Amino acid sequence: MKLLLEHAHVEGIRYYDTYRKHGGYRSVEKALKMTPDEIVEEVKTSGLRGRGGAGFPTGMKWSFLAKPEGVPRHLVCNADESEPGTFKDRYLMEFIPHLLIEGLIVSSYALGSNMTYIYIRGEYSWIDPILEEAIAEAKNNGWLGKNIQGSGFDCEIYVQRGAGAYICGEETALLESLEGKRGNPRIKPPFPAVKGVWGRPTVVNNVETLAAVVPIINNGGAEYAKIGVGRSTGTKLMSACGNINKPGVYEIDMTISVEEFIFSDQYCGGIPNGKKLKACIPGGSSVPILPANLLLKTAKGETRLMNYESMSDGGFQTGSMIGSGGFIVFDEDQCVVRHTMSLAHFYNHESCGQCSPCREGTGWMYKILKNIEYGKGKMSDIDLLWDIQGKIEGNTICPLGDAAAWPVAAAIRHFRDEFEWHVLNPEESQTRNFGLAHYADPLPVLAGDA
Amino acid sequence: MAEETPKIKVTIDNITVEVDPGTTILEAARKIGGDVTPPAMCFYSKLEGSGGKCRTCLVEVSKGSEKDPRPMPKLMASCRTGVMDGMEVKNITSPRVLEARKGVVEMLLINHPLDCPVCDQAGECHLQDLSYEHGTEGTRYEFDRRTFEKEDIGDYISLHMTRCILCYRCVYTANQVAEGDREHGILERGDKAEISTLLGKNLKNDFIGNVIDVCPVGALTDKTFRFKNRVWFTKPMNAHRDCSNPKCCGKVRLWMRGDEVFRVTARKDEWGEVEDWICNECRFEKKETKDWVIEGPANISRHSVISQGHYVNTVDQPVVIDKVIGKNPKLLLDIHDESDVNKPNVRLSEISGPAHSDDFEKKDK
Q: What's the gap in Å between the CA of B103 and the closest CA on chain A?
């Protein structure tokens, strides 16, 4: 099922003429004939959930937007996609930029935003001109600017590049950065829906979320809700990487199993070189890592599916999250300790330094993990790590603290023997990997797929 | 008469207090005082936007409000969370809070140099108080502490970045009190973040000296007082002068030893917050008693070491423990029953000098 990437491989789809030929901007035509409230209702009906990681229902977020008289409102597109392992928004913006622009126009109309911003990650330097070009094309064809298509609705879209900070993907830090300030997350409440950019009511949505508004308006929210399962409606972009044969961005409807996603040729195409699956981070680096046995089946023994509910089945004890869709696969040759160390380094580097537990704790965890990885660890370090992550989680201003704590917690929870092996075999651990844990594993390649 | 807004009720650690709508949990707790008041290292009621950063004031909201009694899932920063009618808050009655706070104190200390013996802030340092009251006795941190290159920020203020806990109070002070060019701010991020001045500029604003008073630790100290004396050897006296600067209140605290003025600071309230800002001239230039009209000894209400020196004007915090747990705590072991030393046959007041074990042994003879 492809809604967003349906025409992704059409030559020239990046440009307006081709995009329009393939049904582009139909949703704007349709939306401008509806009232803004009808669009919000349509999005609510669709059951669309935020694709940035948290999975909050988009329609509900939109309905929270404060609408005081005489105060401008803003829509901000969060394109600061910096989560390690996640690159779906990049793909979308690079190859079908008009889809995002189209979604932005419809959403701006629904929310009453006459000035809409795309805050794009600083490192995506080559995409900024692509978006600018698409915006110019849209404007030349009357989809942006004053009185769009004679509807009386005005809208401008501005692209703002970030300066290379992961933290600016947190919505309030993004708003600070957009205002030209240091990208420190704000303390909530007030929420952006009440006081966002320049103190005005603001909605911040992920690129994929806004792009998904296009098929919702085109086909109707009820149609969209039929795709997927339960509260996981519609399609989701997954960016798969790691030890798989076919890394890349895949659009899935959320009914397929994890096993199918990893092993079928339609998607990741299995693990290269006949290696076995050891573990996987299913939703971007900050969600808990799962060993193969818990990844493919839930603790209850049910097949784990690629959707919000199934992925988080069992809570953090035996589950994870679909998060932003950054699907990182590990084969038997990967070292969980080394990987966790590298993530801890990342979060240490990216902490804004505003609140104490995250500023100090992330560095501490990294140093301990470095010791363990390089054969200088002690058994007590493992418990200490566990204690530190518990003191960071939930006690910080923004979710970066949680994002730094979860991977460490999950690695210890599921791979404690590998940590212990590192401590007990400091020399051996420098020359070889722990290998496949006894529990990680096991399922054969899907029958009939090979 | 203006119509009074109805007060709302909030219960903190089983003690109910009535406050105005819009009050934060921390401010409500300060109304009660004593042990139920969460510590605050970054919040400063006089600085807009401060607070929420240090996480020492985390509390558990066990009941959101009368209307919506659901508890809040995460611990909340009490300095930035407004009270609702019927809200119930747990501070010292929540093991979760105490555990989290212990963690925060440990985090604040892992990169702090603990150079109190050579730090001018020692004795009036909020981090000392915090670690004494809420910390653990040892550290589990085994790595080198973070250091910074020393930066000279002018003739008046000494910056020791290694001691900084990044509370941002000085940044807000520089922006809000010492208005003018934005020269003072934070560079870098994460554990490399540091207080600095724009391109090594000296801080020159007339009111920039106030950053010394708001600093909870010894990161920003008075260069004119550097190594001159320990704060507990000096005696705080309230004084005032007719300051020519219209924005300066001229009401200060002189830190004196004999007739010598060692240091001038703004007056602080019982929570260690400045009552009114003073200008650089009052703070740094007027160090003679003849410059000032001395009013008398200042009240010392924070549990500082100064009050330990048998200082007369100490103001004690209210004791609330009976209200928190519903009864007076009963000691497991009453030393008065157990120890003979405490019921000697001699009258201790009759002995000149300290009591000696011989004085007690007399009763057996």
A: 6
Q: Please check whether residues B91 and B38 belong to one and the same domain.
A: yes
Residue A446 has pLDDT above 60, yes or no: no
The CATH class given to the A229-331 domain equals alpha beta
B-interface mutation test, from A182, A356, A396, most B Cβ less than 10 A away: A356
Residue range B298-324, pLDDT digits in tens: 887 656 666 665 566 777 778 888 888
Residue B131 located in a structural domain: no
Q: Phi, psi at residue B337, to the nearest 5°?
A: -80, -30
The per-residue b/e assignment along B237-247, b for 16 or more CB within 10 angstroms, e otherwise, is bbbebebeeee
* pLDDT score at B328: 75
pLDDT of residue B200 exceeding 70 = no
pLDDT at site B343: 59
Q: Do B291 and B344 sit in the same domain of this protein?
A: no
b/e map of A38-70 (b: 16 or more CB within 10 Å)?
ebbbbbbbbbbbbbbbebebbbebbeebbeeee
CATH label, A16-226, candidates 3.40.50.11540, 2.70.98.10, 3.40.50.2300, 3.90.780.10: 3.40.50.11540
Cβ–Cβ < 8 Å for B240, B295: yes
Q: Which of A382, A395, A398 to mutate to test binding with chain B, by most B CBs within 10 Å of its CB? A: A395
* Nearest CB neighbour to B111, from listed A357, A360, A395: A360
Identify the domain containing residue B351 by its residue range: 335-364
Closest-CA residue in chain B for A185?
B53
Asked whether residue B134 is assigned to any structural domain, the reply reads no
Number of separate domains in chain B: 4
pLDDT in tens, A228-270: 998 999 999 999 999 999 999 999 989 999 999 999 999 999 9
Which residues in chain A are contacts of B74 at CB distance < 8 A? Answer: 394-395
| Chosen from A350, A360, A396 to mutate, greatest number of chain B CBs within 10 A | A360
Distance from CA of A48 to the nearest CA of B (A): 25
Nearest CA distance, A87 vs chain B (angstrom): 24
Residue type, A209: T
What chain A residue is nearest to B193 in terms of C-alpha separation?
A353
A277-281 and A290-291 strand pairing: antiparallel
* Amino acid letter, residue B88: E
**8 A C-beta contact, residue B195 and residue A358:** no
* pLDDT tens digits, A285-332: 999 999 998 999 998 889 999 999 999 998 899 999 999 999 999 998
CATH class of segment(s) A336-431: mainly alpha
Residue B338 has pLDDT above 70, yes or no: no
